[in-house]
Amino acid sequence: MAAAPTPQRPGSKNLETFYLLWLDASVNKTEENVEAQQYLRTSINYLETFENDKQSECYIQSLSSDDRVVLIVSGQLGQIIVPHIHSLRQLSSIYQDYSPNHALWWYTRDSFAYRLLNKVLRVQNIDLLFLFRFFIRDLQQQFKDNQCTSRVCLYRRQLMPNDELQVSKDSTGSSTSNNIERVLFEITADLVAGVKSFANTRSFSYFPEEEEAFFMLGSIFRVINIQQDNEQVWLIQLKLCSENDNDLKSVIDEMKKDYTESGSETNLLSLGNILLSMNEYDSAEKYLFRFLDEQTNDHLDIARCYYLLGNLDTNTYHLDSSLT
């Protein structure tokens, strides 16, 4: 008999931007599903499970139209419920048959993952990036497993707002009058120590006929040259940089020192610290309290968390709270 799943605590607060729901007739009956729930709850604060499609549909409809739902659907219930809920405003995505070693396949197809993650990266929404952390982590692992083994030269063309182009250009005295400019990026990447993973996606893409390469989030590029050709297209030459580059290493090491303990991994505590330094006080408070909610026995980290909360209250002029 499968172990009983850990229930959502009554009255517990949803600290996620989304509600995560899992619909499966055996979601609470098999050891595999129960273990999966426990794994999800180590990463996701709020998870609700349903064995009946009607119950899950009623739950979604009971939420505000401003709420967002991520629904995991398994088995035949997916065929039953999708036609009924597909148009509901609250529903943001439906996961079916996802596995970590197929993250790039999911990302390269025209699905919610591609559209939503790209939008999240464009608007730089911290909450949504945090929600996508499991998917980004899976992408990173696939990049590492399929890392390019030789030097590559890649090209990407796009339209770019003139103000963004102006930021990138050298101060040569040239100017442009159009609001949109045609831009061609020429990117050179060598496999050297300290660079973020990059990979050719042909062998595991949803569109294997396309020759594409992907760079991991956090990749650093140096602008080598910017010039305009005879057809009025701006050519921007970039080179992938290593964190060990002489002019970058000291800056990156200092940032790591400021926001994380030596040798430790980034966690909710360091995220809260970064958000606090960015004056994103509401987000910092949310993630610091979530860290306390999940922390059990690391007294040093708990003390650091309360110290950051005190700084937060001081910065937001809640002086009485910061002293308690």
Secondary structure blueprint with pairings:
Blueprint: E1 19-23, H1 31-43, E2 47-50, H2 53-62, E3 69-73, H3 77-85, E4 91-95, H4 103-108, H5 112-123, H6 126-131, H7 133-145, E5 152-161, H8 162-168, E6 180-189, E7 198-200, E8 213-215, E9 220-228, E10 234-241, H9 246-259, H10 268-277, H11 281-294, H12 299-315, H13 319-322
Parallel strand pairs: 1-2, 1-3, 3-4, 6-10
Antiparallel strand pairs: 5-6, 7-8, 9-10
Helix pairs in contact: 10-11, 10-12, 11-12
Describe the structure.
- With 324 residues, this protein is an alpha/beta fold.
- It folds into four domains: 1-97, 3-Layer(aba) Sandwich (Rossmann fold), CATH 3.40.50; 99-145, no CATH class; 150-244, no CATH class; 248-322, no CATH class.
- It is built from 13 helices and ten strands.
- A four-stranded parallel sheet has the order 2-1-3-4, sandwiched between helices. It has a four-stranded mixed sheet with strand order 5-6-10-9.
- Helix 1 links the parallel strand 1 (19-23) and strand 2 (47-50).
- Helix 10 (268-277) runs antiparallel to helix 11, helix 10 (268-277) runs parallel beside helix 12 (299-315) and helix 11 packs antiparallel against helix 12.
- The longest helix is centred in the C-terminal third of the chain and has 17 residues, at 299-315.
- The termini are far apart.
- The model is unreliable at 1-7 and 171-177 (pLDDT under 50).
- InterPro entries: TPR-like_helical_dom_sf.
